[in-house]
Design goal:
binds zinc ion, Aminopeptidase, protease, globular, metalloexopeptidase activity, alpha/beta, 11 helices, single chain, eight-stranded mixed sheet, binds 2-acetamido-2-deoxy-beta-D-glucopyranose, hydrolase, aminopeptidase, 11 strands, three-stranded antiparallel sheet, EC 3.4.-.-
């Protein structure tokens, strides 16, 4: 895709700013479980989130328009790994120091709230990091995917050399939120989801330094407004569905930095492999990747309906899965507050998520699926 000047892509239009003011008082339609819809004001949405109740905001997504007539054959994932040598060569370049440095900058924005100008600034910083890593490669595009609110999503595409139409997606969300007063109070969002966003950025850095070229297309997504009812990812996958984009797998990582029994605490450490509202085959395949490429095991766990952006991919018929920092009952309590800072996170635990991501990209980027 043709690159436009950064300023013309990221600086919000007046219409977006006005919309941002108007939309707050409006009624939203939300879906709390399959088919269970209700209306809520913005303040009621925040109250639900404070109660840890999750939902899709479907105000702009007419359910009946979701089914498309194009159906892709189901992806069958490999039974064993094939990229062990390549992985062994690249994995040592993944760095806990880099993860920490980048996360400390990413959490230094006052908030990354999707409806704020701070959230535009953090998005611009992220864009510039990616831009620098891409360098002069012309087979990689970076799309600033605009929404009705201020902060954009960022979609990076490494064109496949053999099957460019088959797309493997790596996802995380870039926004944060303070659930008390989102527009006013700070939200460092270190674990949620600065950790996932920097985990995937670190893998992207290592791939770029190794001159990586996949056979299938590999995309890295940083969604906006996950915290507002999976709004950014719904926009993206709705667009992909209407445009007949053939996503063969989507892996979301939302919170990768904290573990109750972490390396830091010299305790038992594990990843949480989500088993509800995910694609079972992709989830099964992730077990192979974790046991092959990570130094900690997984524990199966559930997070409920619409708990992160993989749910948006799933809603449009794409095979998606979700890996989180631990069993759901053990995830960080600091999220959505001013306390969600880099200080309580474990960058070696995060590195395990980066290894999983690297294994996933190397394997599926070159698999015949
Ligand atoms: C799907 O196909 C049916 C029957 O051909 C048609 O009525 C419907 O409008 C199509 N839906 C979409 C979203 O294209
Ligand atoms: C791209 O950048 C690399 C490293 O900076 C350089 O070696 C190479 O010659 C450049 N290629 C082109 C086509 O400019
Ligand atoms: C999807 O988004 C792209 C880029 O923002 C846009 O050009 C395209 O028209 C959109 N497709 C649909 C079907 O809305
Ligand atoms: Zn969150």
């Amino acid at each position: 895709m043709k690159l436009l000047a950064l300023s013309s892509l990221i600086v919000p239009t007046l219409a977006q700013v006005l919309n941002d003011e108007v939309v707050i008082g409006n009624e939203h339609i939300i879906e709390l479980s399959p088919g269970n819809k209700q209306t809520a004001t913005f303040e009621e949405l925040l109250a639900l989130k404070r109660e840890k109740i999750q939902f899709f905001d479907i105000t702009n997504f007419d359910e009946d328009s979701i089914t498309t007539n194009v159906t892709f054959p189901e992806a069958i994932y490999p039974k064993k790994t094939h990229q062990n040598k390549k992985f062994a060569k690249l994995a040592p370049s993944l760095s806990a120091v880099e993860l920490e440095l980048k996360l400390r900058t990413f959490t230094s924005f006052y908030t990354r709230y999707a409806r704020s100008s701070h959230g535009v600034e953090s998005c611009t910083w992220l864009y510039n990091q990616i831009r620098e890593m891409i360098g002069n490669r012309t087979d990689i595009s970076i799309e600033v995917f605009r929404h009705e609110w201020l902060q954009s999503s960022i979609l990076v595409r490494i064109e496949g050399s053999e099957n460019p139409d088959k797309v493997i997606v790596v996802g995380a969300h870039q926004d944060s939120i303070n659930l008390v007063l989102p527009s006013i109070m700070p939200a460092p969002g270190a674990d949620d989801d600065g950790s996932g966003a920097m985990t995937t950025l670190e893998v992207f850095r290592v791939l770029m330094e190794s001159d990586y070229k996949p056979k299938n297309t590999v995309e890295f997504h940083w969604y906006s407004a996950e915290e507002l009812g999976l709004l950014g990812s719904q926009d993206v996958f709705s667009n992909y569905s209407s445009s007949n984009v053939d996503v063969r797998a989507m892996l979301q990582q939302d919170m990768t930095g904290y573990s109750a029994g972490s390396f830091k605490n010299e305790g038992h450490d594990e990843m949480g492999l989500i088993t509800d509202f995910v694609n079972p085959e992709l989830t099964e395949y992730l077990k192979l990747l974790i046991s092959t490429y990570c130094d900690i095991p997984y524990a199966e766990t559930e997070c409920g309906y619409a708990c992160s952006d993989h749910a948006s991919a799933g809603k449009y018929g794409y095979q998606s899965a979700f890996v989180i920092e631990s069993q759901f009952s053990n995830v960080a309590h600091q999220i959505h507050t001013t306390e969600d800072t880099a200080d309580y996170l474990d960058f070696y635990h995060m590195l395990e998520h980066a290894k999983l991501t690297l294994g996933y990209v190397l394997e599926l980027g070159s698999a015949d699926i």
